[in-house]
Amino acid sequence: MQGKFWTISNVLSLSRIILMAPVVYFFLTPVIHNREYAVLFLLLAITTDALDGYFARLLKQESEIGKIIDPLADKICVGIVVVLLLFFGDISVWFAVIVILRDALIFIGGLILKVRKGIILASNLAGKFAVAFVAFTLVFAMMRYHFFSLLMPFSLFVSVVLLLFSFAVYIKKFYTVMKSSPDINNSSRKGNSQ
Fold first, then answer.
1. 192 belongs to a structural domain
2. Phi, psi at 145, each rounded to 5°
3. Alpha helices of the chain — where are they, by DSSP H?
4. Residue 29 is part of a domain; what is its CATH number?
5. Number of domains observed in the structure of the chain
6. 28-82 residue pLDDT tens
7. Taking the mean position of all CA atoms in its chain, how far away is CA 190?
């Protein structure tokens, strides 16, 4: 892996996963305003998502390991909250399936590209917008306030559109790389035969 591991941007990405501990704790603990506390930590995690990329570019700390940690942290955080909300009946099964299945397919695609081509695709802008909208949709579902429930249909619609669009962008990149880049196993065999 190129680049240092313990950079500000990578630490922010890792902190996003750590912040899920208090989110889960408050969500599951039957105390007054438990969901509000959980949302505060979730919003803090969302903030780190905006800051890690900013610091990576500002401090020129963009790295291969960062390309893995950042989207992986997003997927772990979203997955945890989606499962919690699904368990308590706050979101529909179809929405949870779309979110988790998309993330799982992108993760598998990333593994295939890394193993066969030695390439790690950076998160695309459409994916970042999709994750942001999904995050706020999950916040609305967590709060259970009437005002937020009015926003849910619009938020769900936009989230699904962005999720599907960003997935299509990823698939296009995936096939482009698979067709244009040489297989690292074939390249190493050719190099050994010369």
1. no
2. -90, 150
3. 8-18, 20-28, 34-58, 64-87, 93-117, 125-143, 146-180, 184-193
4. 1.20.120
5. 1
6. 998 899 999 999 999 999 888 888 777 777 777 777 777 788 888 888 999 999 9
7. 37
